[in-house]
Write a structure and sequence with these properties.
- Helix 2 packs antiparallel against helix 5, helix 3 runs antiparallel to helix 4 and helix 6 packs antiparallel against helix 7.
- The radius of gyration is 34 Å and the shape is elongated.
- The protein is of the alpha+beta class.
- The protein contains 7 helices and 27 strands.
- Strands 14, 15, 16, 17, 20, 21, 22, 23 and 25 form a 9-stranded antiparallel beta sheet that branches. It has a 6-stranded mixed beta sheet with strand order 2-10-9-4-7-6, with no helix packed on it. Strands 18-19-13-12-11-24 form a 6-stranded mixed beta sheet, with no helix packed on it.
- The two termini are 31 Å apart.
- Strand 14 and strand 15 form a beta hairpin.
Protein backbone atom coordinates (compact mmCIF):
# COMPACT_ATOMS: atom_id res chain seq x y z
CA UNK A 1 0.00 0.00 0.00
CA UNK A 2 1.50 3.36 -1.02
CA UNK A 3 1.62 6.33 1.31
CA UNK A 4 -1.07 8.29 -0.51
CA UNK A 5 -3.50 5.41 0.06
CA UNK A 6 -2.39 5.18 3.70
CA UNK A 7 -3.12 8.86 4.14
CA UNK A 8 -6.56 8.45 2.59
CA UNK A 9 -7.44 5.60 4.93
CA UNK A 10 -6.17 7.44 7.98
CA UNK A 11 -8.12 10.56 7.06
CA UNK A 12 -11.33 8.56 7.30
CA UNK A 13 -10.82 8.25 11.04
CA UNK A 14 -11.09 11.95 11.95
CA UNK A 15 -14.05 12.28 9.61
CA UNK A 16 -16.04 10.15 12.03
CA UNK A 17 -15.63 12.75 14.74
CA UNK A 18 -16.54 15.84 12.72
CA UNK A 19 -20.04 17.20 13.26
CA UNK A 20 -21.56 19.76 10.90
CA UNK A 21 -22.98 22.94 12.34
CA UNK A 22 -26.75 22.64 12.27
CA UNK A 23 -28.17 25.71 13.95
CA UNK A 24 -31.55 24.80 15.50
CA UNK A 25 -31.87 21.41 13.82
CA UNK A 26 -33.02 19.87 17.12
CA UNK A 27 -35.97 22.25 17.48
CA UNK A 28 -34.93 23.67 20.87
CA UNK A 29 -36.12 27.18 20.01
CA UNK A 30 -37.55 28.43 23.29
CA UNK A 31 -35.66 31.72 22.87
CA UNK A 32 -37.97 32.43 19.91
CA UNK A 33 -41.18 31.82 21.86
CA UNK A 34 -42.33 35.42 21.85
CA UNK A 35 -41.28 36.56 18.37
CA UNK A 36 -41.59 33.12 16.72
CA UNK A 37 -38.73 34.26 14.47
CA UNK A 38 -35.70 32.02 13.82
CA UNK A 39 -32.36 33.56 14.73
CA UNK A 40 -31.00 32.97 11.25
CA UNK A 41 -30.39 36.57 10.30
CA UNK A 42 -32.46 36.40 7.11
CA UNK A 43 -35.73 38.20 6.35
CA UNK A 44 -38.98 36.28 6.35
CA UNK A 45 -40.43 35.38 2.97
CA UNK A 46 -42.73 37.95 1.35
CA UNK A 47 -44.30 35.47 -1.07
CA UNK A 48 -47.41 33.48 -0.05
CA UNK A 49 -46.63 30.43 2.03
CA UNK A 50 -47.13 26.98 0.48
CA UNK A 51 -48.12 25.70 3.93
CA UNK A 52 -51.43 25.89 5.79
CA UNK A 53 -52.68 25.40 9.33
CA UNK A 54 -56.07 23.75 9.80
CA UNK A 55 -58.19 22.63 12.77
CA UNK A 56 -60.94 20.04 13.13
CA UNK A 57 -63.28 22.31 15.12
CA UNK A 58 -64.34 25.92 14.81
CA UNK A 59 -65.79 26.15 18.33
CA UNK A 60 -64.60 24.94 21.69
CA UNK A 61 -65.51 24.56 25.34
CA UNK A 62 -63.35 24.29 28.44
CA UNK A 63 -61.50 20.96 28.46
CA UNK A 64 -61.94 20.29 24.74
CA UNK A 65 -59.15 18.96 22.53
CA UNK A 66 -58.60 20.51 19.09
CA UNK A 67 -56.65 18.68 16.39
CA UNK A 68 -54.23 21.08 14.65
CA UNK A 69 -52.57 20.16 11.33
CA UNK A 70 -49.67 21.90 9.62
CA UNK A 71 -49.21 20.69 6.04
CA UNK A 72 -47.87 21.47 2.60
CA UNK A 73 -49.38 20.20 -0.62
CA UNK A 74 -46.11 19.02 -2.20
CA UNK A 75 -43.33 21.05 -0.61
CA UNK A 76 -41.64 19.64 2.49
CA UNK A 77 -40.53 21.73 5.43
CA UNK A 78 -37.68 21.14 7.89
CA UNK A 79 -38.69 23.13 10.96
CA UNK A 80 -41.78 24.59 12.57
CA UNK A 81 -43.12 26.27 15.68
CA UNK A 82 -46.86 26.18 16.50
CA UNK A 83 -48.62 28.20 19.20
CA UNK A 84 -52.12 29.25 20.18
CA UNK A 85 -52.70 32.85 21.33
CA UNK A 86 -55.52 35.10 22.42
CA UNK A 87 -56.92 36.60 19.24
CA UNK A 88 -57.28 39.93 21.03
CA UNK A 89 -53.57 39.89 21.95
CA UNK A 90 -51.64 38.09 19.18
CA UNK A 91 -48.35 39.49 20.49
CA UNK A 92 -48.92 38.06 23.95
CA UNK A 93 -47.90 34.75 25.47
CA UNK A 94 -48.95 31.36 24.19
CA UNK A 95 -52.02 29.88 25.88
CA UNK A 96 -53.20 26.34 26.46
CA UNK A 97 -51.07 23.26 26.05
CA UNK A 98 -50.44 20.65 23.37
CA UNK A 99 -50.42 16.87 23.27
CA UNK A 100 -48.16 15.16 20.74
CA UNK A 101 -49.43 12.75 18.11
CA UNK A 102 -46.01 11.65 16.81
CA UNK A 103 -43.11 11.92 19.24
CA UNK A 104 -40.58 11.26 16.48
CA UNK A 105 -41.62 14.33 14.49
CA UNK A 106 -42.65 16.89 17.12
CA UNK A 107 -41.77 17.90 20.67
CA UNK A 108 -43.26 20.11 23.37
CA UNK A 109 -41.73 23.43 24.40
CA UNK A 110 -42.42 25.51 27.47
CA UNK A 111 -43.11 29.08 26.39
CA UNK A 112 -43.64 31.38 29.32
CA UNK A 113 -44.87 29.64 32.46
CA UNK A 114 -47.12 27.15 30.69
CA UNK A 115 -45.77 23.65 30.18
CA UNK A 116 -46.13 22.35 26.64
CA UNK A 117 -47.56 25.60 25.29
CA UNK A 118 -45.76 25.28 21.96
CA UNK A 119 -44.71 22.52 19.56
CA UNK A 120 -41.57 22.34 17.40
CA UNK A 121 -39.64 19.86 15.26
CA UNK A 122 -37.25 17.23 16.57
CA UNK A 123 -34.97 17.15 13.53
CA UNK A 124 -34.41 18.91 10.23
CA UNK A 125 -35.67 16.01 8.14
CA UNK A 126 -38.27 16.89 5.47
CA UNK A 127 -41.94 16.75 6.47
CA UNK A 128 -45.18 17.12 4.54
CA UNK A 129 -47.59 17.13 7.49
CA UNK A 130 -47.53 17.46 11.26
CA UNK A 131 -50.49 16.80 13.56
CA UNK A 132 -50.81 17.84 17.21
CA UNK A 133 -53.64 18.24 19.70
CA UNK A 134 -54.32 21.53 21.50
CA UNK A 135 -55.86 21.30 24.97
CA UNK A 136 -58.26 24.13 25.86
CA UNK A 137 -57.18 25.78 29.17
CA UNK A 138 -59.49 26.20 32.17
CA UNK A 139 -59.96 29.96 31.60
CA UNK A 140 -59.73 30.45 27.84
CA UNK A 141 -60.32 33.74 26.04
CA UNK A 142 -63.46 33.96 23.88
CA UNK A 143 -61.43 33.67 20.65
CA UNK A 144 -58.17 31.79 20.05
CA UNK A 145 -55.95 31.98 16.98
CA UNK A 146 -53.21 29.56 15.96
CA UNK A 147 -49.90 30.76 14.58
CA UNK A 148 -47.09 28.85 12.91
CA UNK A 149 -43.54 29.58 11.81
CA UNK A 150 -42.44 27.21 9.06
CA UNK A 151 -38.87 26.77 7.84
CA UNK A 152 -38.26 25.34 4.38
CA UNK A 153 -34.51 26.06 4.33
CA UNK A 154 -32.17 27.93 6.63
CA UNK A 155 -32.77 31.16 4.71
CA UNK A 156 -36.33 30.41 3.53
CA UNK A 157 -39.05 30.63 6.16
CA UNK A 158 -42.41 32.20 7.00
CA UNK A 159 -42.73 33.79 10.42
CA UNK A 160 -45.86 33.70 12.55
CA UNK A 161 -48.29 32.69 9.81
CA UNK A 162 -51.84 33.45 11.00
CA UNK A 163 -53.93 30.29 11.18
CA UNK A 164 -57.54 29.45 12.02
CA UNK A 165 -59.53 31.27 14.69
CA UNK A 166 -61.75 29.20 16.95
CA UNK A 167 -64.49 30.59 19.21
CA UNK A 168 -65.93 29.62 22.53
CA UNK A 169 -69.59 28.53 22.66
CA UNK A 170 -72.05 29.71 20.05
CA UNK A 171 -70.28 32.91 19.00
CA UNK A 172 -70.41 33.97 15.36
CA UNK A 173 -67.43 32.45 13.45
CA UNK A 174 -64.67 34.81 12.40
CA UNK A 175 -63.12 34.20 8.96
CA UNK A 176 -59.66 32.68 8.95
CA UNK A 177 -56.98 35.22 8.15
CA UNK A 178 -54.63 34.55 5.29
CA UNK A 179 -50.86 34.57 5.72
CA UNK A 180 -49.64 38.10 6.04
CA UNK A 181 -47.03 39.23 3.57
CA UNK A 182 -43.86 40.62 5.05
CA UNK A 183 -42.47 43.58 3.23
CA UNK A 184 -39.19 42.66 1.59
CA UNK A 185 -36.10 44.28 2.96
CA UNK A 186 -34.31 46.82 0.85
CA UNK A 187 -31.54 45.09 -1.04
CA UNK A 188 -28.01 46.34 -0.60
CA UNK A 189 -26.47 47.95 -3.67
CA UNK A 190 -23.88 46.12 -5.75
CA UNK A 191 -20.27 47.33 -5.73
CA UNK A 192 -19.10 48.45 -9.15
CA UNK A 193 -15.45 47.45 -8.76
CA UNK A 194 -13.31 45.35 -6.41
CA UNK A 195 -11.58 46.69 -3.33
CA UNK A 196 -8.00 47.93 -3.54
CA UNK A 197 -5.07 47.77 -1.12
CA UNK A 198 -3.63 50.99 -2.52
CA UNK A 199 -4.29 53.03 0.63
CA UNK A 200 -3.42 50.31 3.16
CA UNK A 201 -1.28 51.76 5.92
CA UNK A 202 -1.98 55.35 4.90
CA UNK A 203 -5.73 55.94 5.15
CA UNK A 204 -6.97 52.51 6.25
CA UNK A 205 -5.76 49.52 8.26
CA UNK A 206 -5.52 46.21 6.39
CA UNK A 207 -5.20 42.55 7.26
CA UNK A 208 -4.29 40.40 4.24
CA UNK A 209 -3.43 36.84 3.29
CA UNK A 210 -1.06 36.36 1.54
CA UNK A 211 0.86 39.28 3.01
CA UNK A 212 0.81 42.30 0.75
CA UNK A 213 -1.79 40.93 -1.70
CA UNK A 214 -4.20 43.24 -3.53
CA UNK A 215 -7.85 42.10 -3.95
CA UNK A 216 -8.12 44.29 -7.03
CA UNK A 217 -5.64 42.16 -8.97
CA UNK A 218 -5.31 38.90 -6.98
CA UNK A 219 -8.46 36.72 -6.86
CA UNK A 220 -6.89 34.56 -4.13
CA UNK A 221 -6.43 37.48 -1.73
CA UNK A 222 -8.21 37.44 1.65
CA UNK A 223 -8.66 41.07 2.61
CA UNK A 224 -10.08 43.14 5.46
CA UNK A 225 -9.75 46.90 5.76
CA UNK A 226 -11.30 49.44 8.10
CA UNK A 227 -11.35 53.21 8.16
CA UNK A 228 -12.72 55.28 11.02
CA UNK A 229 -14.14 58.74 11.33
CA UNK A 230 -15.46 60.57 14.38
CA UNK A 231 -18.57 58.43 14.84
CA UNK A 232 -18.27 55.23 12.77
CA UNK A 233 -16.01 52.70 11.05
CA UNK A 234 -16.20 51.58 7.42
CA UNK A 235 -15.28 47.91 6.83
CA UNK A 236 -14.31 46.25 3.54
CA UNK A 237 -14.19 42.45 3.43
CA UNK A 238 -13.15 40.19 0.54
CA UNK A 239 -12.21 36.55 0.00
CA UNK A 240 -12.18 33.74 -2.58
CA UNK A 241 -15.07 31.53 -1.49
CA UNK A 242 -18.42 30.27 -2.78
CA UNK A 243 -20.01 30.26 0.66
CA UNK A 244 -19.19 33.05 3.09
CA UNK A 245 -16.38 35.28 4.25
CA UNK A 246 -16.37 36.78 7.75
CA UNK A 247 -14.33 38.52 10.37
CA UNK A 248 -14.59 38.64 14.15
CA UNK A 249 -13.36 40.87 16.95
CA UNK A 250 -12.05 38.86 19.89
CA UNK A 251 -10.48 39.53 23.27
CA UNK A 252 -8.12 36.56 22.81
CA UNK A 253 -6.92 34.14 20.14
CA UNK A 254 -9.64 31.60 20.90
CA UNK A 255 -12.98 31.51 19.16
CA UNK A 256 -15.82 32.24 21.58
CA UNK A 257 -17.68 35.27 22.92
CA UNK A 258 -16.77 37.23 19.79
CA UNK A 259 -18.40 39.97 17.75
CA UNK A 260 -18.81 38.52 14.24
CA UNK A 261 -19.68 39.97 10.83
CA UNK A 262 -20.59 37.66 7.95
CA UNK A 263 -21.09 38.10 4.24
CA UNK A 264 -22.85 34.92 3.07
CA UNK A 265 -23.82 34.12 -0.47
CA UNK A 266 -27.39 33.06 -1.24
CA UNK A 267 -27.76 32.29 -4.95
CA UNK A 268 -26.66 35.53 -6.64
CA UNK A 269 -27.08 37.73 -3.59
CA UNK A 270 -24.90 38.42 -0.53
CA UNK A 271 -26.46 38.75 2.93
CA UNK A 272 -24.52 40.98 5.32
CA UNK A 273 -25.20 40.31 9.00
CA UNK A 274 -23.64 40.92 12.39
CA UNK A 275 -23.62 38.01 14.79
CA UNK A 276 -22.27 36.70 18.05
CA UNK A 277 -20.38 33.49 18.80
CA UNK A 278 -20.57 31.75 22.17
CA UNK A 279 -17.87 29.09 22.35
CA UNK A 280 -17.08 26.98 19.29
CA UNK A 281 -20.65 27.08 18.02
CA UNK A 282 -22.71 28.31 15.11
CA UNK A 283 -22.92 32.14 15.22
CA UNK A 284 -26.21 33.67 16.27
CA UNK A 285 -27.05 36.19 13.55
CA UNK A 286 -28.54 39.52 14.52
CA UNK A 287 -30.50 42.21 12.76
CA UNK A 288 -28.89 44.45 10.17
CA UNK A 289 -30.17 47.50 12.05
CA UNK A 290 -26.69 48.30 13.42
CA UNK A 291 -25.17 48.38 9.91
CA UNK A 292 -25.43 51.08 7.24
CA UNK A 293 -23.97 51.78 3.80
CA UNK A 294 -24.06 48.08 2.96
CA UNK A 295 -22.92 46.94 -0.48
CA UNK A 296 -21.60 43.74 -2.00
CA UNK A 297 -20.08 42.16 -5.09
CA UNK A 298 -19.82 38.64 -6.57
CA UNK A 299 -17.21 37.98 -9.25
CA UNK A 300 -15.15 34.95 -10.29
CA UNK A 301 -15.66 33.07 -7.03
CA UNK A 302 -14.83 36.09 -4.86
CA UNK A 303 -17.24 37.55 -2.29
CA UNK A 304 -16.81 41.20 -1.36
CA UNK A 305 -18.93 43.26 1.01
CA UNK A 306 -18.81 46.65 2.65
CA UNK A 307 -20.68 48.23 5.54
CA UNK A 308 -20.41 50.98 8.11
CA UNK A 309 -20.98 50.61 11.85
CA UNK A 310 -21.13 53.10 14.70
CA UNK A 311 -18.20 53.03 17.08
CA UNK A 312 -20.52 52.40 20.01
CA UNK A 313 -23.89 50.64 19.97
CA UNK A 314 -25.18 50.85 23.57
CA UNK A 315 -28.50 49.18 22.73
CA UNK A 316 -26.81 46.00 21.48
CA UNK A 317 -24.55 44.31 24.03
CA UNK A 318 -23.24 41.84 21.43
CA UNK A 319 -21.66 44.65 19.40
CA UNK A 320 -18.22 45.47 20.78
CA UNK A 321 -17.10 49.07 21.17
CA UNK A 322 -14.72 49.84 18.31
CA UNK A 323 -12.56 52.26 20.28
CA UNK A 324 -10.87 49.34 22.03
CA UNK A 325 -8.27 46.78 20.99
CA UNK A 326 -9.09 43.28 19.74
CA UNK A 327 -7.56 40.36 17.94
CA UNK A 328 -9.04 40.15 14.45
CA UNK A 329 -10.12 36.83 12.93
CA UNK A 330 -10.62 36.44 9.17
CA UNK A 331 -12.43 33.24 8.09
CA UNK A 332 -14.36 31.70 5.21
CA UNK A 333 -16.28 28.51 4.56
CA UNK A 334 -19.26 26.80 3.04
CA UNK A 335 -22.82 28.13 3.14
CA UNK A 336 -26.05 26.46 2.05
CA UNK A 337 -29.32 28.37 1.82
CA UNK A 338 -27.77 31.10 3.93
CA UNK A 339 -26.64 28.70 6.66
CA UNK A 340 -22.92 28.97 7.33
CA UNK A 341 -20.85 25.92 8.21
CA UNK A 342 -17.59 25.58 10.07
CA UNK A 343 -14.67 27.24 8.29
CA UNK A 344 -12.71 24.60 6.39
CA UNK A 345 -9.30 25.89 7.45
CA UNK A 346 -7.83 27.83 10.36
CA UNK A 347 -8.87 31.52 10.45
CA UNK A 348 -6.28 34.18 9.80
CA UNK A 349 -5.63 35.77 13.22
CA UNK A 350 -3.86 39.08 13.69
CA UNK A 351 -0.52 38.78 15.47
CA UNK A 352 -1.38 41.53 17.95
CA UNK A 353 -4.43 43.34 19.26
CA UNK A 354 -5.47 46.36 17.25
CA UNK A 355 -7.42 49.47 18.25
CA UNK A 356 -10.00 49.65 15.48
CA UNK A 357 -10.16 53.45 15.58
CA UNK A 358 -6.42 54.02 15.89
CA UNK A 359 -4.10 55.22 13.14
CA UNK A 360 -3.97 53.14 9.92
CA UNK A 361 -1.40 50.36 9.60
CA UNK A 362 -0.69 47.12 7.77
CA UNK A 363 -1.46 44.25 10.12
CA UNK A 364 0.32 40.93 10.22
CA UNK A 365 -1.44 37.66 10.91
CA UNK A 366 -1.12 33.91 10.78
CA UNK A 367 -3.42 30.97 10.23
CA UNK A 368 -1.36 28.82 12.58
CA UNK A 369 -0.58 29.54 16.25
CA UNK A 370 3.13 29.95 16.91
CA UNK A 371 3.22 27.11 19.42
CA UNK A 372 1.75 24.72 16.84
CA UNK A 373 4.30 25.90 14.28
CA UNK A 374 7.07 25.02 16.73
CA UNK A 375 5.45 21.63 17.34
CA UNK A 376 5.40 20.85 13.63
CA UNK A 377 8.94 22.12 13.03
CA UNK A 378 10.44 20.08 15.88
CA UNK A 379 8.66 16.91 14.78
CA UNK A 380 9.90 17.36 11.20
CA UNK A 381 13.48 17.93 12.33
CA UNK A 382 13.30 14.84 14.56
CA UNK A 383 11.55 12.37 12.26
CA UNK A 384 12.54 13.59 8.80
CA UNK A 385 16.18 14.40 9.40
CA UNK A 386 17.64 13.14 12.69
CA UNK A 387 16.06 9.67 12.60
CA UNK A 388 16.58 9.14 8.88
CA UNK A 389 20.27 10.05 8.88
CA UNK A 390 20.85 8.10 12.11
CA UNK A 391 19.32 4.95 10.63
CA UNK A 392 21.31 5.16 7.37
CA UNK A 393 24.61 5.77 9.17
CA UNK A 394 24.11 2.77 11.46
CA UNK A 395 22.69 0.41 8.85
CA UNK A 396 25.04 1.04 5.94
CA UNK A 397 28.05 3.20 6.86
CA UNK A 398 29.79 1.32 9.67
CA UNK A 399 32.66 0.23 7.37
CA UNK A 400 33.58 3.87 6.70
CA UNK A 401 34.98 4.18 10.23
CA UNK A 402 36.04 0.67 11.23
CA UNK A 403 38.42 1.65 14.03
CA UNK A 404 38.09 5.43 14.36
CA UNK A 405 36.69 6.58 17.70
CA UNK A 406 35.16 9.70 19.17
CA UNK A 407 35.20 10.15 22.96
CA UNK A 408 36.05 6.49 23.43
CA UNK A 409 33.37 5.07 21.11
CA UNK A 410 33.30 4.30 17.40
CA UNK A 411 32.34 7.30 15.27
CA UNK A 412 29.29 5.65 13.69
CA UNK A 413 27.94 4.78 17.13
CA UNK A 414 28.44 8.29 18.47
CA UNK A 415 26.70 9.77 15.42
CA UNK A 416 23.82 7.33 15.85
CA UNK A 417 23.55 8.00 19.59
CA UNK A 418 23.61 11.80 19.18
CA UNK A 419 20.97 11.78 16.43
CA UNK A 420 18.64 9.34 18.18
CA UNK A 421 18.97 11.08 21.55
CA UNK A 422 18.18 14.36 19.80
CA UNK A 423 15.13 12.72 18.25
CA UNK A 424 13.78 11.66 21.65
CA UNK A 425 14.48 15.10 23.16
CA UNK A 426 12.84 17.00 20.26
CA UNK A 427 9.86 14.63 20.31
CA UNK A 428 9.34 15.14 24.04
CA UNK A 429 9.35 18.92 23.71
CA UNK A 430 7.13 18.89 20.61
CA UNK A 431 4.75 16.39 22.25
CA UNK A 432 4.03 18.74 25.15
CA UNK A 433 3.32 21.87 23.07
CA UNK A 434 -0.16 20.95 21.70
CA UNK A 435 -1.35 20.08 25.20
CA UNK A 436 -0.09 23.46 26.43
CA UNK A 437 -1.87 25.18 23.54
CA UNK A 438 -5.18 23.33 23.95
CA UNK A 439 -5.05 23.06 27.71
CA UNK A 440 -5.70 19.32 27.41
CA UNK A 441 -6.70 16.71 24.85
CA UNK A 442 -8.01 17.93 21.50
CA UNK A 443 -11.27 16.37 20.31
CA UNK A 444 -10.98 17.96 16.87
CA UNK A 445 -7.64 16.55 15.68
CA UNK A 446 -8.84 13.12 14.57
CA UNK A 447 -6.30 10.29 14.61
CA UNK A 448 -3.21 12.53 14.68
CA UNK A 449 -2.89 12.84 18.49
CA UNK A 450 -3.35 9.08 18.91
CA UNK A 451 -0.55 8.41 16.45
CA UNK A 452 1.58 11.06 18.14
CA UNK A 453 1.16 9.45 21.53
CA UNK A 454 2.14 6.08 20.05
CA UNK A 455 5.28 7.57 18.49
CA UNK A 456 6.17 9.24 21.79
CA UNK A 457 5.80 5.97 23.70
CA UNK A 458 7.89 4.02 21.16
CA UNK A 459 10.62 6.68 21.17
CA UNK A 460 10.92 6.49 24.94
CA UNK A 461 10.90 2.68 24.77
CA UNK A 462 13.75 2.79 22.24
CA UNK A 463 15.78 4.98 24.58
CA UNK A 464 15.17 2.69 27.55
CA UNK A 465 16.13 -0.40 25.55
CA UNK A 466 19.30 1.34 24.32
CA UNK A 467 20.33 2.26 27.83
CA UNK A 468 19.91 -1.32 29.11
CA UNK A 469 21.15 -3.09 25.96
CA UNK A 470 23.11 -6.34 26.62
CA UNK A 471 26.78 -6.75 25.74
CA UNK A 472 27.43 -7.64 22.07
CA UNK A 473 28.80 -11.10 22.99
CA UNK A 474 25.84 -12.22 25.12
CA UNK A 475 23.00 -14.49 23.84
CA UNK A 476 20.37 -11.80 24.58
CA UNK A 477 22.00 -9.39 22.16
CA UNK A 478 20.19 -10.99 19.23
CA UNK A 479 16.82 -10.41 20.94
CA UNK A 480 17.75 -6.79 21.59
CA UNK A 481 18.84 -6.28 17.98
CA UNK A 482 15.49 -7.49 16.61
CA UNK A 483 13.44 -5.55 19.19
CA UNK A 484 15.47 -2.40 18.60
CA UNK A 485 15.07 -2.70 14.83
CA UNK A 486 11.36 -3.58 15.01
CA UNK A 487 10.42 -0.81 17.44
CA UNK A 488 12.38 1.75 15.45
CA UNK A 489 10.83 0.69 12.13
CA UNK A 490 7.28 0.76 13.50
CA UNK A 491 7.80 4.16 15.11
CA UNK A 492 9.13 5.61 11.83
CA UNK A 493 6.14 4.31 9.86
CA UNK A 494 3.66 5.70 12.40
CA UNK A 495 5.54 9.00 12.49
CA UNK A 496 5.20 9.33 8.71
CA UNK A 497 1.45 8.66 8.96
CA UNK A 498 1.18 11.26 11.75
CA UNK A 499 3.01 13.82 9.61
CA UNK A 500 0.68 13.23 6.65
CA UNK A 501 -2.35 13.81 8.89
CA UNK A 502 -0.84 16.66 10.88
CA UNK A 503 -0.07 18.76 7.81
CA UNK A 504 -3.79 19.05 6.98
CA UNK A 505 -5.12 19.76 10.47
CA UNK A 506 -6.75 23.20 10.76
CA UNK A 507 -4.17 24.47 13.26
CA UNK A 508 -1.34 24.01 10.71
CA UNK A 509 -2.92 23.22 7.32
CA UNK A 510 0.01 23.49 4.94
CA UNK A 511 -0.92 24.24 1.31
CA UNK A 512 -2.63 21.38 -0.57
CA UNK A 513 -1.63 19.39 -2.55
CA UNK A 514 1.88 20.77 -2.22
CA UNK A 515 2.41 19.36 1.29
CA UNK A 516 1.32 15.84 0.35
CA UNK A 517 3.46 15.80 -2.77
CA UNK A 518 6.51 17.12 -0.92
CA UNK A 519 6.26 14.62 1.92
CA UNK A 520 5.63 11.81 -0.56
CA UNK A 521 8.73 12.98 -2.42
CA UNK A 522 10.78 12.82 0.78
CA UNK A 523 9.58 9.31 1.58
CA UNK A 524 10.42 8.21 -1.96
CA UNK A 525 13.84 9.86 -1.66
CA UNK A 526 14.59 8.03 1.58
CA UNK A 527 13.33 4.64 0.35
CA UNK A 528 15.37 4.88 -2.87
CA UNK A 529 18.48 5.79 -0.87
CA UNK A 530 18.08 2.78 1.40
CA UNK A 531 17.38 0.56 -1.59
CA UNK A 532 20.49 1.82 -3.40
CA UNK A 533 22.70 1.21 -0.36
CA UNK A 534 21.13 -2.21 0.16
CA UNK A 535 21.91 -3.19 -3.44
CA UNK A 536 25.43 -1.86 -3.01
CA UNK A 537 25.85 -4.04 0.07
CA UNK A 538 24.69 -7.12 -1.84
CA UNK A 539 27.18 -6.33 -4.59
CA UNK A 540 30.03 -6.07 -2.08
CA UNK A 541 28.97 -9.33 -0.41
CA UNK A 542 28.86 -11.24 -3.69
CA UNK A 543 32.22 -9.85 -4.72
CA UNK A 544 33.70 -10.86 -1.40
CA UNK A 545 32.13 -14.32 -1.72
CA UNK A 546 33.85 -14.88 -5.06
CA UNK A 547 37.18 -14.09 -3.43
CA UNK A 548 36.77 -16.22 -0.32
CA UNK A 549 33.54 -18.21 -0.48
CA UNK A 550 33.71 -19.83 2.93
CA UNK A 551 34.46 -16.73 5.03
CA UNK A 552 31.64 -14.36 4.15
CA UNK A 553 30.35 -12.41 7.15
CA UNK A 554 26.98 -10.79 6.31
CA UNK A 555 26.61 -8.65 9.41
CA UNK A 556 29.77 -6.58 9.54
CA UNK A 557 30.85 -7.02 5.88
CA UNK A 558 34.46 -7.36 6.97
CA UNK A 559 35.67 -8.69 3.60
CA UNK A 560 34.28 -5.69 1.77
CA UNK A 561 35.16 -2.96 4.23
CA UNK A 562 37.40 -1.16 1.78
CA UNK A 563 35.12 -1.71 -1.23
CA UNK A 564 32.84 1.03 -2.39
CA UNK A 565 33.60 3.48 0.42
CA UNK A 566 33.69 6.35 -2.01
CA UNK A 567 30.27 5.42 -3.38
CA UNK A 568 28.80 5.33 0.13
CA UNK A 569 30.29 8.70 0.98
CA UNK A 570 28.82 10.20 -2.18
CA UNK A 571 25.40 8.65 -1.50
CA UNK A 572 25.46 9.86 2.12
CA UNK A 573 26.43 13.39 1.07
CA UNK A 574 23.77 13.57 -1.64
CA UNK A 575 21.14 12.11 0.70
CA UNK A 576 21.89 14.60 3.49
CA UNK A 577 21.71 17.50 1.02
CA UNK A 578 18.37 16.24 -0.30
CA UNK A 579 17.05 15.61 3.19
CA UNK A 580 17.95 19.13 4.29
CA UNK A 581 16.35 20.53 1.13
CA UNK A 582 13.04 18.79 1.93
CA UNK A 583 13.27 19.91 5.56
CA UNK A 584 14.03 23.51 4.59
CA UNK A 585 11.04 23.59 2.25
CA UNK A 586 8.73 22.40 5.02
CA UNK A 587 10.14 24.79 7.61
CA UNK A 588 9.78 27.70 5.19
CA UNK A 589 6.16 26.72 4.49
CA UNK A 590 5.41 26.57 8.22
CA UNK A 591 6.96 29.99 8.71
CA UNK A 592 4.84 31.48 5.90
CA UNK A 593 1.40 30.36 7.09
Amino acid sequence: MDLSMLKLLLLLVPAIFLDPVNGYGNGKVTESCRSMKPGHGHPSQSLPSPYTVTVDKSKFSTGDQIKVTLSGSSTTFKGFLIQARDMADPSGDAIGSFTLVDHYVSQLLNCGEIKGSAVSHTSKSGKLKVEVVWNVPSNPPPAVQFFATVLQHYDTYWVKMPGPIILMGNSTPIPTLTTSAVQPTTESPVLRKPFSSKDCGSTKSCLRDPIGCDPETDPKCYFLSFTSDEHSVLFELSGPTEGYVSFALSHDKWMGNDDVYLCARTDEYVNINPGYVTGRTHPTLDSQDTLTNMAWRLSDGVIQCMFRRKIRVPADQDRFNLDRSYYIFLADGKAEHGMVHKHHHQPLISSEKKYITSSPENLNGSRSPFIIKVHGALMLVAWMTAVSIGVIVTRFLKPLWPVSTLFGQKIWFQVHRILMSSTVLLTCVAFILPFVYRGGWSKHAGAHPFLGCTVMALAVLQLVMAIFRPHPNTPRRLIFNWMHWGTGTISRIIAVAAMFLGMDLPALNLPDPWDTLLLSGFVTWHVLTELLLELHNLFIIRKAKNVKDDEVEIIDLALGETEGHMIKKIVLTVYICGNLAFLTAFLNAINCI
